[in-house]
Design brief:
The chain is an alpha/beta fold. Helix content is 31%, strand content 22%. The strands form 3 sheets. Strands 2, 3, 4, 5, 10, 14, 15 and 16 form an 8-stranded mixed sheet that branches. Helix 4 packs across helix 5 and helix 7 packs parallel to helix 9.
């Protein structure tokens, strides 16, 4: 019997329910997350809701470093300028440019220091965000371009701020000593699955919508985390096949282009910390109205869904694909290496206070990390000159 509720169930919940039905009643979580975030016109990053801002009153859900302080982009631009020179290139590629704030800061900083930038290309799947970026960056035309996908060969410096964390993840649950892949089912069909999900969470549509409930459902799997998890306690975690595939594809395109570098800034851990026995609830979280919850099955499409980055996996994937790891360190150390302290000295008190949030351990400074990758021959990178933690990957 089909699990699909009445055909009148509109919008994203209805689309996901149809996908579950087409998959035989059980959808892997990474497929669910892909639809929840990126379904055209409906997913969180594809709809017109405001995402970025400093306060909930603005209607935003979270703030990122470029919105917090322009000194973030200005400091990052120092490393970008070095890497453009090291690779003999003149183009920057940014993935997931958000509001366009980071692009604006980098272009302005590169111009101020006399670095030649032929083109700044933004790769963003969100049509709504692209419109906002185009408005913000109108004064930077015609150097700014937009692309839906990367070319076959890529030359230049690639940046991604809070991009890897939004890539769909596979959920693995060890229950009673046995590993399962955790997926999503329609709530009314949950009893059909064995073993039963450890919990069920139901989404009730907006007023006037047909009810469309989703629930967790687990299936035995041969998939495993990259390291053995000590103990026999129940354990929930994520693995990152899409993240790995993205890094491998990027490496291949940079290799075809002959020269390039990439820098990713995100929250995450090296493998030993990511899969620590005490991290038994995983890292998957949702963001809405500057609050955090752990229920991705509720309010689908109305909030962000993220998971921390396994930076060891990023580094290994890059090396296996022919890239060098330039370094890995905390956001605070990277920005300090790139001269943010000197810029803070010239700023007024409110600007310095905001910049301190980028550096403070209890804010973004320690939670966020930076990893640098490059084609062979790049040479040392200033962002990792002090405090490099590559040995911990």
């Amino acid at each position: 019997m089909p699990t699909t509720p009445p055909a009148t169930a509109p919008g994203l919940p209805g689309l996901i329910t149809q996908a579950i039905d087409a998959a035989g009643g059980w959808l892997p979580f990474d497929h669910f997350m892909q639809l929840a975030l990126y379904a055209p016109g409906l997913g969180y990053y594809a709809n017109a809701s405001r995402k970025f801002g400093a306060l909930p009153a603005s209607g935003s859900d979270f703030i990122t470093a470029p919105e917090l302080s322009p000194l973030f982009g200005q400091a990052l631009a120092e490393q970008i300028a070095d890497s453009l020179a090291a690779t003999g290139t003149d183009e920057v590629w940014e993935f997931g440019a958000g509001s366009g704030a980071l692009a604006e800061q980098i272009i302005s900083a590169l111009d101020a220091r006399g670095t030649r930038l032929r083109r700044y290309t933004i790769v963003d799947v969100s049509g709504a965000l692209r419109q906002r970026q185009q408005q913000r960056l109108a004064t930077c035309a015609p150097r700014v371009a937009w692309a839906d996908a990367l070319p076959d060969a890529l030359r230049g410096v690639v940046i991604g701020n809070e991009v890897l964390d939004a890539m769909p993840v596979t959920l693995l649950a060890r229950i009673g000593g046995k590993w399962h892949e955790r997926g999503v089912a329609v709530a009314s069909a949950v009893p059909r699955f064995s073993p039963l999900p450890t919990e069920a969470r139901v989404f009730q549509g907006d007023a006037g919508m047909a009810p469309c409930g989703f629930a967790w459902a687990d299936r035995p799997t041969d998939l495993r985390p990259p390291v053995e998890i000590e103990g026999q306690h129940d354990y929930l975690t994520e693995i990152h096949p899409q993240q790995r595939a993205f890094i491998v594809t990027l490496a291949e395109k940079l290799a075809r282009g002959g020269a390039g570098a990439a820098f990713f800034i995100d929250y995450g851990f090296p493998e030993a910390e990511y899969y620590h026995p005490q991290r038994h609830a995983g890292t998957l979280v949702c963001h809405r109205a500057h609050q955090v919850d752990d229920d991705p099955l509720r309010d689908v499409g109305l909030k962000d869904i993220t998971a921390h980055v396994d930076f060891t996996d990023v580094a290994v994937a890059a090396q296996d694909a022919g890239l060098e790891v330039l370094g890995y360190t905390s956001q605070a150390r990277f920005l300090l290496n790139c001269g943010i302290a000197e810029r803070m000295e010239q700023a007024d008190l409110p600007a310095r206070a905001n910049a301190m949030k980028l550096l403070a351990e209890h804010e973004m400074g320690e939670l966020f990390k930076v990893i640098g990758l490059a084609t062979p021959g790049h040479g040392p990178a200033r962002g990792f000159a002090a405090g490099d933690r590559t040995h911990r990957l």
